[in-house]
Structures are given as C-alpha cells and as structure tokens.
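re: the backbone from monday

yeah here it is again, tokenized this time
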C-alpha cells in the first residue's frame, strides 16, 4: 500500500514538473515557419497555439483549398463536372451562334455559361477538376477558411450572365437552327424538282 501511494506521488510529481516546465517555456511564441525552412521540426519551446486570424500557418504551394473559376477563360467543356466524383460542379451551356471570343491561352469560345456553380459543402478537395481543365480556368486558391452562417452560402456562382441574357442567347440559337432547317428543306425541295 505504501509502495502504491509512493508510486502515485512520483507519477503526479513527474506530470506537474512537465506542466511547470512548459508553463515557464511558453513565455515566447514559436516563430511561424514554412515546412521547407531549416529548423522547422527543431522548435520545441514556446507557445504552440496560433493566434488566428492575426497569425496564420503558411500554406503549402501544392495545397488543395478553395476552388476559384476564371469564367472569362472557361470554354464550358464540362470536363470538370464530368470528372467530379461527388457532383459538386453544376454547369449549363448554351451554344453560341458565332465565336464569342478567345480565352487568355488562345482557345476559341463557342459556348455561353449561364450557370457555373460549385457547391463547396460537397467538394472533397481532390483537385481532379483542376487537372482536366484544358484552359486552366479552374484553380485551387490558398484560402482555406470559408466560415459561413448557413450551408447554402457555400454554393458559389461563377457565371456572370443574367437570366434575361441567357434567354436571349437561347432564342437566338433557336432562330438560327430554324433558319438552317428551313434552308435545308428548301435545298431538298430544289434537288427533288431537278
């Protein structure tokens, strides 16, 4: 019984000594270093808590965080939505009646994007969408803290077209298709007469 009591006091004393040692060593903050810097793992003294948001831990260059779409560079190829394993990307396209313009890498844009939504609440940050994008318009930023009051606020809309503009583009496409169909029918009738 005396041995057990002595063992209990010894164990408690070791724990208290460790606590007191850390208490006195925590006078200074640890320096925030990147993992690549020498001596990153040698930091054993100081406060380990990061005073967020005043202090932040450096994010790695290859980190996977918040998705961003540069909609002016998007050719609406839909590859990102097709490869997404959790279906968090929702894209709608409208075929243009003529070439719209060019992206920053020189690709010709032939589709409008009236809807380009990414639901970051579903996203599993795999990065597949950024890999398959031919124009590299969808990227992962270094921003990792997106606190929102409601989960629906994590659905980001990147399309810049209004509903009225989208309807105008749809009607222009329908009119062009109707004109082409009429021209084909007229050409068929002309061929049948000859």
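seq for it, each position gets an aa:
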């Amino acid at each position: 019984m005396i041995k057990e009591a002595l063992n209990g006091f010894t164990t408690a004393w070791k724990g208290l000594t460790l606590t007191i040692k850390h208490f006195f060593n925590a006078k200074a903050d640890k320096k925030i270093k990147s993992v690549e810097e020498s001596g990153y793992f040698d930091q054993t003294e100081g406060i380990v808590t990061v005073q967020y948001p005043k202090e932040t831990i450096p994010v790695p260059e290859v980190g996977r965080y918040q998705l961003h779409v540069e909609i002016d560079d998007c050719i609406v190829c839909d590859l990102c939505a097709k490869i997404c394993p959790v279906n968090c990307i929702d894209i709608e396209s409208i075929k243009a009646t003529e070439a719209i313009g060019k992206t920053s890498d020189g690709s010709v844009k032939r589709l409008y994007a009236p809807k380009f939504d990414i639901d970051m609440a579903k996203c599993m940050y795999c990065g597949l969408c950024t890999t398959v994008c031919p124009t590299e318009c969808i990227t992962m930023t270094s921003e990792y803290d997106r606190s929102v009051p409601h989960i629906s606020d994590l659905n980001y809309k990147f399309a810049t077209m209004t509903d009225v503009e989208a309807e105008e583009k749809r009607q222009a496409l329908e009119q062009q298709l109707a004109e082409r169909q009429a021209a084909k029918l007229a050409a068929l009738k002309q061929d049948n007469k000859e």
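Residues 187 and 193 are 10 Å apart (CA to CA). The first strand starts at residue 67 and ends at 69.
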